[in-house]
Design a protein that fits this description.
about 90 residues, alpha+beta, two-stranded antiparallel ribbon, 2 helices, 4 strands
């Protein structure tokens, strides 16, 4: 369930049905969902192993002060000496 701002408002102990047909408390469903989401964001396909990337994942509600905001988008400040190569991004 959502409130008028789009925030989830399910009671923590409300039973919800999983895709496997089990009923579990909403707080456990949400924990499992967040774990799956984090796994999806932090897992890299083997085909891309040669890329030496660094991924940053921010919770906007907790890290808003660490990010630069422009036109509804958020950017992480990266010191220039931390880059090997840089592409010029216009409009940011």
């Amino acid at each position: 369930m959502y409130d008028f701002r789009g925030s989830i408002v399910n009671p923590p102990n409300q039973l919800v049905q999983t895709s496997g047909g089990l009923s579990i408390p909403f707080k456990e469903y949400r924990r499992q969902f967040e774990k799956a989401m984090l796994t999806a964001l932090t897992t890299k396909a083997q085909d891309w192993h040669y890329e030496q990337e660094v991924r940053f994942i921010y919770d906007l509600s907790q890290h808003q002060g660490q990010l630069l905001a422009k036109e509804g988008k958020h950017f992480a400040p990266i010191p220039p000496d931390a880059l090997k190569e840089a592409w010029l991004l216009r409009g940011i």
